[in-house]
Amino acid sequence: MDRIIIDELKKEFIAAANRAYNSKIQTGTGGNISIRVPGEDIMLIKPSGISFTDCTMDNIILTTLDGQVIEGDGKPSREAYLHREIYKLNDEINSIVHCHAPWSIAWSLREKVLDTITQHAKLKLVNQIPVIDIIKPVITEEEIHKILCHYTNNTILKAFLLKGHGIVAVGSKVRDTEYLAELIEETAQISCIDRSM
Ligand SMILES: [Zn+2]
User: Fold this and answer.
1) Which of 87, 121, 154, 184 is surrounded by the fewest CB atoms within 10 Å?
2) 129: CA distance to ligand 1 center in Å?
3) Could you tell me the distance, in angstroms and rounded to a whole number, from the CA of residue 175 to the centre of ligand 1?
4) Which CATH superfamily is domain 3-196 in?
5) Ligand 1 center to 138 CA (angstroms)
6) Ligand 1: distance of its center to the CA of 1 in Å?
7) How far is the CA of 2 from the centre of ligand 1 (A)?
8) What is the whole-number distance in angstroms between the Cα of residue 120 and the centre of ligand 1?
9) Per-residue pLDDT, 41
């Protein structure tokens, strides 16, 4: 475990969390962000009950991919299980941004996919974003297969919507993953407006 690398990743984490909050894709204490330490089975994740704007070098949690807390105040986000299971699938995924973005949630209530209706979305997302219907408010072992089935054969699904819940974006660098979440929210907003015309 390299202290310098972990502290650098924490700084990237705080920057992405603040940007997500300031972009209004997450309010209050909801949502969560994680970063896997590249090449290791450990990850940084937001503490439960803490706002994106209140993440600090001291309270960001470091855990193993088996759920053992190594450092950080408080408890890991309730969605830590989802993050850990996605990291175990593919070594190229090193960051996950999950947020309760309002336009994306509105779109997910009545639709099965979010189409890449703008030119920018076509460029960056390439494929449709599926809406996955998870019954419980937190992902559990009983329902995780509904998500993991999209990652078979080394496929990396860049993002999906949880019905009535929000965005999950995955990627390599957390800054880019947060940008991706913003793009999905922008695409969902335009889609909602387009549908209402
Ligand atoms: Zn959530």
Assistant:
1) 154
2) 17
3) 19
4) Class II aldolase/adducin N-terminal domain (3.40.225.10)
5) 7
6) 29
7) 30
8) 26
9) 94
C-alpha 50 – ligand 1 centre gap (Å): 13
User: pTM higher than 0.70 for the full model?
Assistant: yes
Q: In the 3-class helix/strand/coil scheme, how is the chain assigned residue by residue? A: CCHHHHHHHHHHHHHHHHHHHHCCCCCCCCCEEEEECCCCCEEEECECCCCHHHCCCCCCEEEECCCCEEECCCCECCCHHHHHHHHHHCCCCCEEEEECCHHHHHHHHHCCEECCCCHHHHHHHCCCEEEECCCCCCCCCCCCHHHHHHHHHHCCCCEEEECCCEEEEEECCHHHHHHHHHHHHHHHHHHHHHHHC
State the distance from the centre of ligand 1 to the C-alpha of 81, rounded, in angstroms: 12
Q: What is the 115 CA–ligand 1 centroid distance (Å)?
A: 22
Question: Which residues, 6+ apart, have CB-to-CB distance to 174 below 8 Å?
Answer: 9, 12, 13, 16, 33, 35, 94, 95, 97
> Which pLDDT score, from 0 to 100, does residue 151 have?
87
pLDDT digits (tens, 9 = 90+) for 55-72: 999 999 999 999 999 998
Question: In this structure, what token pair is assigned to residue 167?
Answer: 């965005």
Query: What are 123-157's pLDDT values in tens digits?
Result: 988 789 999 999 998 999 999 999 999 988 778 89
CA 99 to centroid of ligand 1, rounded, Å: 6
